[in-house]
Amino acid sequence: MDAAQDSGYQFYTVADYIEADVVDEPYIVLRHDVDRWADNAVSLATAEAERGINSTYYFRTSTFDPDTAQEMEAQGHEVGYHYEDLAKVRGNVEAAHARFATNLESFREHVDVRTACAHGSPLSPHLNTEMWEDARTPAEYELVGEAYSGLEFDSDGASDLLYFSDTGRDWNATVPDFGDVRSTADVVDAIESGTCPTLYLLAHPSRWATTRYQTVERTGWDIAAEAGKIAVQNAHAVQQTGGRVAEGTGIARAIRSVAMRMTGE
Length: 265
Known about the structure:
Number of strands: 10
Structural class: alpha/beta
Helix content: 25-40%
Shape: globular
Distance between the termini: 37 Å
Number of helices: 9
Oligomer: single chain
């Protein structure tokens, strides 16, 4: 955050970026998925607010707390719905929309939810963004967009925005005219280099630590979780017919699923 501010970057929430008429470079669309351990999200939100930075926090139903959400909103952050409805109802699209509507209404009793973002649900063969492959769109729920719609991704998942994510405890990105970005030190160097003026950055609060104990605990948890994801994804790929899962997984599938729906392709 400090490196970006020193380099003149502006920060945007997902909703503010989608709704902006003009966006001056350099900028960062900053997003956090609160998958677990919401206490770290509170610490991160406070650190951002102290620097005058606004970002988006997507809460699952299991991590959503009204008081926490309202506190973040009061700090200037966007609070969104991190949905996993299609996976929860085992691929039933109609039931997924019903569940989505109920949960969204529950969130909106406490905060103004303008965007939603799919949770990965690695234990399920169902990609949650696929609930939008019928005739409905996020706009029907009075949402300005989904986390990957409205962000200039084309139907192949390509974008002028550079996508940085700490998924898997590795930023795992490549910046043109700079090189590979793996560590957080690389992220700082890339920002300071001036080679990536348009960034979409996702940081999961649960992957970060505020104590030495958390450093050991959460690193171990993530290593085990990532190993489990690989095993489950391989099993799902074998179970699917027509190679649908085998063709692509993770972020590429999510972006492609939403982008194709929004562009009508």
